[in-house]
Amino acid sequence: MLQSIQRARVVNKAHPEIHSCIIRFMKSLSSAFKQQPLNEHVQKVLDKATEELICSKTLQQLNDEFIAKHNASILHLYEGACSLYELDSSKKDTAINLVTSFNRNKIRLEVIFNFSQYRGARGTTTRERG
């Protein structure tokens, strides 16, 4: 998944779904570290790569900055809200409010169409299945 994230960032670093991928990857990586220690060489590679991805920030800080930076984009807010919920399920209402309180006057018809296609392309998430 790390290589996929790195390649996606080369293609379009600003794409909102890349942020969610980084959050999910880092969360999975954290769980893996807790289960068993990794080979020191693998650990060095991962440390360097994760430093490039999150710059010594917590995942919560990274997500908060993402939301603040992209507060004018419904697609980015959607991914930020999903990540907020992914990081802390007790913030479900905050995540929902983040998207539903978006000023609809800022959205052009083409953005609404793209969002519906974007959402459909993502399919169901683990949160929806579980």
Short description:
By secondary structure, the chain is an all-alpha fold. Helices cover 75% and strands 0% of the residues.
Description:
The protein has 130 residues and is mainly α. It has one domain (2-129). Helix content is 75%, strand content 0%. The protein contains eight helices and no strands. The chain has helices at residues 2-12, 16-35, 40-54, 59-69, 74-87, 92-100, 109-122, 126-129. α2 packs parallel to α5, α4 (59-69) packs antiparallel against α5 and α5 packs antiparallel against α6 (92-100). It is globular and about 50 Å long. The protein starts with a helix and ends with a helix.
The number of E-state strands comes to 0
Which structural class matches the secondary elements? mainly alpha
Strand percentage = under 5%
N-end to C-end Cα span: 22 Å
Major beta sheet summary: none
Shape: globular
Overall pLDDT confidence: 85
Number of helices: 8
Order of helices and strands: HHHHHHHH
Q: Helical amount among residues, as a percent range?
A: over 70%
Low-confidence stretches: 124-130
Domain tally:
1
Radius of gyration: 16 Å
Q: Layout of SSEs?
A:
Layout: H1 2-12, H2 16-35, H3 40-54, H4 59-69, H5 74-87, H6 92-100, H7 109-122, H8 126-129
Helix pairs in contact: 1-2, 2-5, 4-5, 5-6
Jot down its keywords.
130 residues; mainly alpha; disordered C terminus; transferase activity; Blast:N-alpha-acetyltransferase 16, NatA auxiliary subunit
